[in-house]
Amino acid sequence: MSASRNEPLNSNPLATPLSNLRGVGPRIAEKLGKLGLSDVESVLYSLPLRYEDRRQIRKISQLHDHGIQVFSGKILAVGESQTARRRKKLYEVVVSDGTGQVSLKWFHYRKPFMQQRFIVGRHAVFIGEPKRFGAVREVHHPDVEFLAPNQSTSELTVTDPLSYGCYLPVYHLTEGLHQKTARKIWREAVERYAPLAFSPLPDEIRQRQGLLPLAKALQEAHWPSSETSFDELEGGTDLARRSLVFDEFFFLELGLALRRQGIELEKGFAFTVAHKYTAPLAKMLPYRLTEAQRRVLNEIKRDMMVERPMNRLLQGDVGSGKTIVALMSALIAIENNTQVALVAPTEILAEQHYLQFHPWLDKLGLRVVYLSGSTSVKDKKAILHQIAVGEVHMVVGTHAVLQQGVEFHKLGLGIIDEQHRFGVKQRAALRKKGKHPDLLVMTATPIPRSLALTVYGDLALSIIDELPPGRTPVKTLCLTDQFRQKAYKHIQSKIAKGEQAYIVYPLVEETEKSDLLAATEGFECLQKDIFPDFKLGLLHGRLRPEEKEQLMREFKSGEIQLLVSTTVIEVGIDVPNASVMMIEHAERFGLAQLHQLRGRVGRGAAESHCLLMRSERCSEVGRKRLAVMVESNDGFRIAEADLEIRGPGEVLGTKQSGMPDFRVANLLKDGRVLEEARQEAFQLVEGHKFLDNPRYDDLRLELKKRWGGRLELASLG
Ligand SMILES: Nc1ncnc2c1ncn2[C@@H]1O[C@H](COP(=O)(O)OP(=O)(O)OP(=O)(O)O)[C@@H](O)[C@H]1O
């Protein structure tokens, strides 16, 4: 086994400063720092961007015109000359290996330096891209490795890992750091430190999956052995990389498996389903549940009926009707004399859920309260008391519900309307509010499977894959200013027909103030100059909760015809009569966010439009992203595109989700390895409760080191 077995288990021999590498002084260390590299371990895990195939040293007669090649030869002639047409100076060196001749040319050079290096009769290895010009083969600005004075090319059998005879890594650089220097640094890191790398991934799994030990994988990932095929290297599917990716995914999935096991082994509530409240609620609804809603509700019911606490993710595209499923689940918990908490990411959304549930629960004789950061101290005190003594059946609120001091009499079900804003910590906090309550997490934007398996990998999954009937897909147009007046006319005609509209402003700069300013100015101008005959409302994050509530009520009732808003309406607002949304500076939004926003329209029977206004100067990438929105209404397609364009950290908001970007793995490319690693990890945990066997001490320790804090792994101690 590796060298680290002799070290104390918690010491990491790779976490050593960059200055321990030969050739890395303060200047180079600073450059490496710019690449995000802070210690030797980070250097080792920063894999090459690509590889140059310099395995074969060719005869000059075998050279071709496609790509970088390596050849050797003896210098026959040297000297300055001029280019034929432009009469620019150049330095020329003619070499031969007995099978042919090549002319090497430099157009930027220092003559004394060239004279000193290139001496007739010397042997060297040359690396460059040969091109044929008539009968002559030329190579411009080749790399040159001189052989020892007494060594001739015929004796050339050795390889030089920094220049030829092997695959050569090409690293990501920064200004002032050259490829050659980079290779030297990485080579030193790989030679001295990679052998110390150790992963306690069980041998039987490594063998079953045909993986390399970590040390070997790191070595191979930087300097692949000559047998590896170039196609695999280019495609990133080679064994070394796969081994590293597997290792990375395995520990995450192991953590998720342990967390799931930890919850499954708890003794929760075994509810009975008596339909005491759910049946009357179903009668009150103006619609029948869709097939998908019923299926998902049954999955939830099954979970709730067993003693093992539910730990389920409810996923569904915008407007698919998750809320009613959540409320039905809540009623089951209430029927069983327990309380329910529903936590939403913003006040507006929490309020909306509260306002929606209130009349129904009232009719059922049940008490629901609203709790947020802006609940007054006096009200809060009374509410907290009522929750604690069990007078309240359901609490709807923001993260204020998770804070200390909120004590439940008997919490049976926690629901988090997550919308990508909460993370594992919040889920754990909600769970701690009761004695092993059931947990239902709702998320609106569909997430690609690979992300779901990581971020929500410990949850069982229910998907509402059907929209309520009668919806017409939203038509999306991307417009520049030149069509602005037309767009306004369209909105006017919609409102004149009795429908409603939104106009949304983005965060202009990273401050709420300017955000508000743009919306305020826009609002005044729209009311005065564009829509003087209609009633407009302005909604933004700085309004007091009562003001927001009032505004939303007026919009819902149709009194306000056009709602001008900052992005606070992004999540969950549900006004089916609204049929057009105009989004200013649409290029500044993320795709998932745009999809969420657009989901506010198209919720009723009227044909709906989403008008994405973009500036003329919008970048190419921006245009591409908006094109995805125009083409597709499918949340999954949009989520994939978002992941591709912005990367997982951004898509999820790394901070909130607790998920870092992976060091080597790529969620888009490595989905298969993820599934394999997940299967192995879950299987291992299934067979060994909490990995309690001392045989797995290393594994537990490593897991704690990598993921313990972020995954809230209580079972690791
Ligand atoms: N089965 C159904 N038939 C008809 N309308 C429905 C049905 N289920 C829900 N609705 C209505 O569809 C609209 C969207 O439902 P809901 O707000 O629950 O969606 P959601 O999945 O939470 O979406 P979002 O993520 O956008 O908030 C609401 O107006 C709701 O009343």
TrEMBL record:
EC number assigned by the record: 5.6.2.4
Sequence ranges assigned to domain Helicase ATP-binding in this UniProt record: 303-464
GO molecular-function terms, A-Z: 3'-5' DNA helicase activity; ATP binding; ATP hydrolysis activity; DNA binding
Swiss-Prot/TrEMBL GO biological process terms: DNA recombination; DNA repair
Gene3D superfamilies in UniProt: Nucleic acid-binding proteins, P-loop containing nucleotide triphosphate hydrolases
Transmembrane regions listed in the UniProt entry: none
Domain Helicase C-terminal: 482-644
Record's catalysed reaction(s): ATP + H2O = ADP + phosphate + H(+); Couples ATP hydrolysis with the unwinding of duplex DNA by translocating in the 3'-5' direction
Highest rank taxon of the organism: Bacteria
Alphabetically ordered keywords of this record: ATP-binding, DNA damage, DNA recombination, DNA repair, DNA-binding, Helicase, Hydrolase, Isomerase, Nucleotide-binding
Family named by the database record: Belongs to the helicase family. RecG subfamily.
Task performed by this protein: Plays a critical role in recombination and DNA repair. Helps process Holliday junction intermediates to mature products by catalyzing branch migration. Has replication fork regression activity, unwinds stalled or blocked replication forks to make a HJ that can be resolved. Has a DNA unwinding activity characteristic of a DNA helicase with 3'-5' polarity.
Protein name as catalogued: ATP-dependent DNA helicase RecG
Organism name: Syntrophotalea acetylenivorans
Taxonomic lineage of the native organism: Bacteria, Pseudomonadati, Thermodesulfobacteriota, Desulfuromonadia, Desulfuromonadales
